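Entry:
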Amino acid sequence: MKHGSEILRNFFDKQVDPTTSLLDGTVEIQGFHLGALTSLINSIHDTLLIVSPQNLYSVIDDYLVPNWEINCGLALPDPLFIAPSPAGFLSEDERRRQISKSIIQSFPRDIRFILSTEAALRESCFSYEKTPPLEVDKNILFDSLIDWLISAEYVVGEIVVRPGAYAIRGGIVDVFPISSNSPVRINFLADEVDLFSFNIDSQMTTDNLSLVKIPPVDRGNKDGVSFFDVFTENLTKIHVIDENTIIIGNHVPPNKTIHFPFSPLPLKEFINQRSKGFLNFEIDLQLTELGFIHEGGRIIVPPWFETRGPASTATNIAHQSQIIDFDKIEQGDILAHNDYGLCRYLGLKQNEDAKAEFILLEFEENGLISLSVQMIRKLTFYASSNQPGVSLDSLTKTKTWKRKKASAESRAEEIVDKLLMSYAERTSTTRNPYKYDSEIEDILLARFPYSDTLDQETAWNEISNDMSFSNQPMNRLLCGDVGFGKTEIAVRASFRSVYNGKQVAVLAPTTILVNQLFSTFKSRLDEFSISIGMVSRFRSGKEIKETLNNLASGNLDIIIGTHSLLSDRVTFANLGLLIIDEEQRFGVNQKEKIQELQKNLDVLSMSATPIPRTLHLATSGIRDISTLQTPPVSRHPINTQISFFDIETIKRAVFNEIRRGGQVFFVHNEVKTIMEMFSLLTEHFPLLEISVAHGQEPATTLEKTIIDFQNHKTDILICSSIIETGIDIPNTNTIIINKAHRFGLSQLHQIRGRVGRSNRKAFALLLVPKGLTLNNNAFRRLKAIEKHSGLGEGYNISTMDLEIRGAGTVFGYQQSGGVGRVGSELYTQLINQALKQKLNPKNIIDLRPDQISVSVFNDGTIPHSYIHPTGLRLDFYRRLAQANTVDDILETEYALENRFGPIPELVQHLIFETKIRIRCCVLGIDRVALADGVLVFGFVREYIVSRVGVFLNAVNDYFSNYNYKYWYKEESSGKIKIFVSGISLEDIPSTIDRFFDKLYDAFNKK
């Protein structure tokens, strides 16, 4: 099987000779389909200029998606059709326009093709005078680089996350070339200049580079020159006349006119042809959205057609750690101090000799404390600065905070007790492993219309093992972003359960999602004679009664419904598997009911944006977890744009989707004004079918509206947030969200995830009222949704949303005495502590790093000269303070050196004391200090009393071996101290490390 279609390539080769230039000849192709432009580009050796009518620009842009990077293609959109955006936001089209202008002026010979419109090409938008591009290699000089970046209009900042920016940190310069997909780090601190690419999320280097070409940023305007004035290379023009006609060449009229002998081939038609045994087809890797059929009957398809889904080009995405948010804590934000309560963060300050740094905190009645950065672990985030109704705690009335914290601890212990009781009951319960017939299950898997991703294969194997190779009920969380294949895994688990004579209950939070799940399960399982019922308001009372009777009598295999399935009137004949979709969206009462129901059942919970508590339960071992982080191949990131409300912008977005045969979601989450929006859109789209859907409609009306939209009887669906979960319509790939600033971040992510569920590029247009000034939280939400438009961002989105919203009913548990009093972050810590104590009852002493005092050097800090930005410096203080293992410290140490160069002595002291603090936790040491040349170790008496002999022998062996003088002292509190003298200052670190090694070996010797 060849990589390109021979018949398609031969057609272009005969009509457009690839060995000669087309500068003097012109060919008109009639009956053409724009989807074949990708193959045409690869048949012409000249640099191409594709000139499109404005109304077809986006359609062609979509067809060329895989060719932009592979074939060095550029897009130069018309600025008149770029949507206006609020301050702080730059549309994708504007960004691409800047990049294209810079490359056109700097590296014209590297360009394979350019897509634009006649108006955009004629506009005087290029700079008169251009700074020449820069080639950076190991011979570059620091001053020359900085001078060039300034002249090239690169913007200096604290960190580099966007093209056209640079940052300086001593002898390290980070630059994000306007023409590149990744930034470069130039290190002048080594013997010779080192060049690396680096990841914008982790900020860590990846690959070594030998040469980097950097073009200047072209910020030209109306007073500049046009494209034809600056592009001096020879060009062959492809002029798109309409959807079915193109002219290739630079002169008109054309020398010859030919007919395009291929017709577009829908996927369904290809599947029907292949099912009849028709195998006369070829693969063309350059095709993306559709296939073609030749007049002679030959079929040409892209790779995913042949496999009926994603092809073998899948790459597994590595687990992404939480993306660093450098603006996470800002001055004025409300924090919770573990000992004193809620306070306001006022910033960082240094002592007089700049050898120590402190966090300044304000409490009630202007009470101030300065907290050492080494104790930053005592602080947790509570709420943003503008969160209403937050009262600070008082330094003089500490009992108030202690009561609130004690109440939260008590509530956390109650939750943990319930969880552990349920866990204990489940682990003590056994059931026979599920049998399975590989032959019949292979048939089910073969009917799946897509190829499994690597993560789907792994997740299914894990769930299959839970069900068939264990005699304990399954309790697994399946975590995967919207559209990553969770439902298919649930279908397979249900199939196995039913074929073992067990019933399945599928629980979903909304009626719309129930309806979607019902449709999916029916389409996948109907041919296997599995009976499936649904309980929702889309069903009449008579239908629901009949369904429940069949369920109780055992005549129904699978029931799908909302929380109504948890009511007492629902009885099962032989329930074996409970599937909970979007578990985090169920409330307190439903969660408690689920806990009661699932004690002896196999449970599969699914979530796209799990809350941290859920993940902590998984990591604690109480729940197993499977993750889907590999997006289906041919799935593209959703092009997300934030703009002001503008009817022309809306019209362009709608018509671009309609022209490619798609449909549009228009989210307007105000039921009282939704008909006004219907009237406005009907006025501007008189030829389109528009319908309205919201949760206050009668069930029969809502169901008909949704079904009509699914069947493409409607072009635009104006709807409330009711579509947040459950709507899966691959043909709908543009979503417009009105008043987007009013939605939560996770909610925006879920709603946006209703599009982009096919191989087509999807678009999300988020609108805010024209002229609106966004408040801080709204800006952060929209900025986050703009930045995190990639595939698999669900967990990052959910954690950022938690930080932005602050306290709230984020866990679905009662706030009284819980999360609302101390904040979500501290509350999570309390739950973890309670879990740890319950799971490790024999561990008498459980020291935490924030309980341990280490004062050896007393000058550990991160100097401004090493990391200047306050937010970034604070982030590294926090990363060190929150480390739980020495390996965590080593990772942070590596990150510091990787990003900022050799680590200064003061930072080395900070790192050393942080390591010591962590090692103290497992040795029962709560204090290490150096005073007047004497080293002091404070031991918790209860920790060593049961191993006193081993302890004394280890101490004596170690210090006697090095001839150090030492003595003991027992204080009235019961604490035992060891004093050691005669150690030189430079030997202190190695002495402590070796002593801790000796104790650890002695305490853990078997």
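Residues 309-327, 794-817 have pLDDT under 50 and may be disordered.
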